[in-house]
């Protein structure tokens, strides 16, 4: 980690300025640790209060990733040491940051390239202008580490067409830039090489004190750069994806996915991730999305913290991180090992607050239905 894990700059734009926040942890694909989260939150608060800041840009350094997610390795070290307070501090701070971006009073342009997964999607989704480049790969791959799609995913992914969000949450499906724009996870698709030219033109925009006019000015500029056309494998299969996910219980849904993979090899990587992933996560995500369907963003983030802390108390999350990132043996020992052994009562426990008294995120403002 460099001395400055997030770089902040302010560039003039007429009588106003553009705040630029750059994630600067390229050796770890700009994965978010607690320091980065707290630095971002503090600076965004300052820019929100500064009437001369008209626009914020969020981006990642290096050519490999915008943000590959959270710093789960350090978190599981704390869990192994029995210090769940570290995990709660991290998750609560991350979800607060995501909520701040969603409710930010000024336009935020997220320039997202390369790997955009987990917590990276959480940062991106609250931006008013979500740009993905030709190198972008998006996913919520938590089934592979025994976690769950958090950072408000059960809110923003359920705004995708049909049940695509549930499908992606269950399977860790990878979306390219065209999939992202066609399926509602991004607003603009551009070339990676457009970065310098676009950012040069941002400084010439007629930005002023009105956030609505600033939003429109940024939108007009981005429209000139966006790549048009193309088809998405997800939208091409929306009817069959809806059929696969048209189940309230985990077992028939898993079996429907396996059957789809036999008929169409496009489904095969998704079915393989489910077969190799945490059975408990699969059952948990299905119930999570059901419960969150009509909740506000605030309520979803609050429930995310409950589920996250329950995951920290169970073995699948640290075991999945061990197998994927630490020992890298690719052989997680899930408990239980088979979906048939996951009891509904076990899943129910993940939705029970592990603390007494007020929820740590009780003070999040707004509803954002």
Write up this protein.
With 369 residues, the protein is of the alpha/beta class. The protein has one domain: 2-enoyl-CoA Hydratase, Chain A, domain 1 (Alpha-Beta Complex), CATH 3.90.226. Helices cover 47% and strands 12% of the residues. It has helices at 34-49, 72-80, 84-102, 119-125, 153-156, 164-171, 177-182, 195-202, 211-225, 233-236, 238-244, 250-263, 268-276, 279-292, 297-313, 316-326, 344-349; strands spanning 6-13, 16-23, 53-60, 65-67, 108-112, 115-117, 129-133, 137-139, 188-190. Strands 1-2-3-5-7-9 form a 6-stranded mixed β-sheet, with helices on both faces. Helix 1 runs parallel beside helix 3 (84-102), helix 2 (72-80) runs antiparallel to helix 3 and helix 6 packs antiparallel against helix 14 (279-292). The longest helix is centred in the first third of the chain and has 19 residues, at 84-102. The chain is globular and about 65 Å long.
Show the helix and strand layout.
Elements: E1 6-13, E2 16-23, H1 34-49, E3 53-60, E4 65-67, H2 72-80, H3 84-102, E5 108-112, E6 115-117, H4 119-125, E7 129-133, E8 137-139, H5 153-156, H6 164-171, H7 177-182, E9 188-190, H8 195-202, H9 211-225, H10 233-236, H11 238-244, H12 250-263, H13 268-276, H14 279-292, H15 297-313, H16 316-326, H17 344-349
Parallel strand pairs: 2-3, 3-5, 4-6, 5-7, 6-8, 7-9
Antiparallel strand pairs: 1-2
């Amino acid at each position: 980690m460099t001395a400055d894990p997030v770089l902040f700059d302010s560039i003039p734009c007429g009588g106003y300025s553009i705040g630029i926040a750059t994630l600067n942890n390229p050796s770890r694909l700009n994965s978010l640790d607690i320091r980065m989260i707290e630095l971002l939150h503090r600076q965004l608060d300052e820019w929100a209060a500064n009437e001369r800041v008209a626009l914020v840009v969020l981006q990642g350094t290096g050519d490999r990733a915008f943000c590959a997610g959270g710093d789960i390795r350090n978190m599981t070290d704390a869990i192994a040491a029995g210090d769940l307070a570290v995990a709660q501090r991290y998750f609560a701070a991350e979800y607060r940051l995501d909520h701040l971006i969603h409710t930010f009073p000024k336009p935020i342009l997220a320039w997202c390239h390369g790997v955009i997964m987990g917590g990276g999607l959480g940062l991106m989704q609250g931006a008013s202008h979500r740009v993905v480049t030709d190198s972008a790969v998006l996913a919520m791959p938590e089934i592979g580490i025994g976690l769950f799609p958090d950072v408000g995913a059960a809110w923003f992914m359920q705004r995708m067409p049909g049940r695509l969000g549930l499908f992606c949450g269950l399977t860790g499906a990878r979306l390219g830039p065209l999939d992202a724009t066609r399926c509602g996870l991004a607003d603009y698709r551009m070339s990676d090489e457009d970065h310098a030219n676009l950012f040069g033109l941002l400084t010439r925009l007629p930005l002023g004190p009105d956030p609505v006019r600033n939003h429109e000015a940024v939108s007009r500029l981005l429209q000139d750069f966006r790549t048009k056309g193309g088809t998405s494998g997800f939208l091409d299969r929306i009817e069959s994806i809806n059929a696969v996910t048209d189940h309230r219980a985990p077992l028939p849904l898993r079996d429907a996915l396996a059957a789809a993979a036999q008929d169409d090899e496009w489904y095969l990587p998704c079915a393989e991730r489910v077969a190799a992933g945490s059975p408990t996560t699969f059952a948990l995500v299905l119930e999570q999305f059901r419960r969150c369907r009509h909740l506000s963003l605030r309520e979803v983030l609050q429930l995310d913290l409950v589920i996250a802390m329950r995951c920290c108390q169970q073995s699948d999350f640290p075991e999945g991180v061990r197998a994927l990132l630490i020992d890298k043996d690719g052989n997680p020992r899930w408990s239980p090992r088979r979906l048939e052994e996951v009891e509904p009562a076990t899943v129910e426990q993940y939705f029970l607050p592990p603390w007494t008294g007020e929820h740590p995120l009780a003070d999040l403002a707004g509803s954002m239905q």
